[in-house]
Amino acid sequence: MVLEILKERRSIRKYQDKPVEKEKIDKLLQAALLSPSSVDSQPWRFIVIEEKEELQELARSKTGGSSFLADAALAIVVCADPDASDVWVEDASIAAFSIQLTAQSLGLGSCWIQIRNRRHDEETKSEDFVRDYLNIPDYIRVDSIISLGYPGEEKDFYTKDDADFAKVYQGKYGEKFN
Ligand SMILES: Cc1cc2nc3c(=O)[nH]c(=O)nc-3n(C[C@H](O)[C@H](O)[C@H](O)COP(=O)(O)O)c2cc1C
Fold it and tell me: For residue 45, is it within any domain?
């Protein structure tokens, strides 16, 4: 059940030193490519990264929150063509989360690494750092990188008690959900 997968999924930032099988990578990409998008525009592009040297370099994309990528087995860089969709951020984000949910269902851990609107350093945006390193054309935007691998850490699953129903209203904004 998808709800069970959602409860079990946590951000995993430590990975076993074990490659992800090609069949699983193929399934992760199917999940991304079969995601819904505005007017079926499918503006996304994905770059699969398995080379250690590339993972280590991409781990330097941001001032914080990306270093663990160096020890991941795999990364999928999530990009989009903004000319193909005026809501490319939403389209790319849904595809990125499809990858994360499918990873969980395949026994893999994952973590979202935000690239858009983040900085590599004072002079360089994370997007430009990633774009330069991976030869991404100027007109293509980089949304995020999903780090992936067999989990090297355990985290508590979520339960229904973790779902903050105070943020849900009934009928009108602010009215208690019952
Ligand atoms: C849009 C978005 C951006 C995120 N950016 C990062 C990031 O750059 N680095 C990181 O380590 N985690 C990142 N995360 C993961 C969140 O920190 C994590 O989902 C949140 O703390 C909840 O923990 P959980 O994923 O274990 O439920 C991001 C998550 C989302 C949805």
Answer: yes
Expressed as residue numbers, the domain containing 37 is 2-167
CATH number at residue 65: 3.40.109.10
Q: 113 alpha carbon to ligand 1 midpoint, in Å?
A: 7
Does any ligand 1 atom lie closer than 6 A to the CB of residue 90? no
Residue 42 burial (CB count, 10 A): 18
Q: Ligand 1 pocket, 10 CB below 6 A?
A: yes
Find the mean pLDDT for residues 37-45.
98
**Domain annotation covers residue 83:** yes
Is 67 near ligand 1, meaning CB less than 6 Å away? no
- H/E stretch holding 67: none
Which of 62, 67, 111 to mutate to test ligand 1, by most ligand atoms within 8 A of the CB atom? Answer: 111
In a domain, 17, yes or no: yes
Give pLDDT, residue 13.
98
